[in-house]
Amino acid sequence: MAETSVRSRQGRLAIPRQSIIGGALLILAWPIAWSGREPWTWYTFVPLWLGYIFSLDGINLMRTGTSLLTRSRREFAFLFLTSAPLWWIFELFNLRIDNWFYTIPFSYTRFEYVVLGSIAFSTVVPAIFETADFYRSLIGRRPIRWVPAFAGDRGWIASATLGLAMVGLVLLFPGQAFPLVWVSVFFLIDGINRRLGVASVTAQTAARRWDTVVILILAGLTCGFFWEMWNYWSVPKWTYSVPHAGFLPIFEMPILGYLGYIPFSLEVFALHHLLRRALGQSRPDYVAFDDLGPADQTAERAGSPARGTARPSR
Q1: What digits encode the pLDDT tens for the residues 38-66?
Q2: Can you give the pTM of this predicted structure?
Q3: Residue 51 to residue 25: CA distance in whole angstroms
Q4: Tens-digit pLDDT profile for residues 159-174
């Protein structure tokens, strides 16, 4: 879908249609979610998060003249399709670490659980990336530079090896190493992405660029807050059992648990790009929070001006 103007014919700022739809969903679903009225409250999670996603997409469109939805409806829909299998990876980890549990007030078959769970999980990736797009618009295009990390031609090996070792520790010692779930997948997958030439966070940090890291951290913490807040008075809901760190809960989540949302957003970024590569549908400029393509990253590491690929302006 072509990028659309957010101004009316009279020149006044118009509210994008997706923001109107999103706002309506939030206004309707939020009170029902917390009302305790069953069975209506059972079906509010997806409308709430669709409201969040569409509202923020419209805000991003008004701020920058472009958004994930207006850049490509097909790519936007693909975010939802990749989201469910991405989160199921962490559900599989939870079979080993037993850190969170779902309270569901009705019986269901295993098939129904997978279907309903997948529909709910489909909102995770779009929410993270819409929020990251919003913070990109706030921070602007000025590069965020810091020390190099995982630099060198073999930086991908260090990243992937570290991630693989962490996965092993989680599986062998789940009671002690469970926090590593939220960093292991990132280092493993991002290292693989870097080797394949797919969008990679460590390739950017090797070039002293931390734009994507900062923006995704902010997005992860923001979405984490809304996930936990909307969950607290909702039914169904999730609760936690976190060894050694179950104190000072904010909503259901212990305060230290919010640290997991920092690397989680990086894992979402890495897994999304790897899955797209596996499906032969790589378009790195659609979900990108810096100005660097692979050619630019190589040029920066070499200390020369970036040439070649350029990001489309937003």
Answers
A1: 889 999 999 999 999 999 999 999 999 99
A2: 0.87
A3: 5
A4: 999 999 999 999 999 9
Residue 9 lies in a domain: no
Length of the chain: 314
143 located within any domain: yes
Residue 73, C-beta contacts closer than 8 angstroms, at least 6 positions apart: 1
What is the spatial distance between Cα 283 and Cα 287, in angstroms, rounded to a whole number?
A: 8
Into how many domains does the chain fold?
1
Band of the pLDDT at 300, cuts 50, 70, 90? very low
Dist. CA 212–CA 280, nearest whole Å: 23
Question: Which H or E run includes 102?
Answer: strand 100-103
- Domain of 107? 73-302
Q: Which of 215, 199, 194 is nearest to 144 (CA)?
A: 215
Assess if residue 5 is contained within a domain.
Answer: no
| 33 is a domain residue | no
CB 250 within 8 A of CB 258: yes
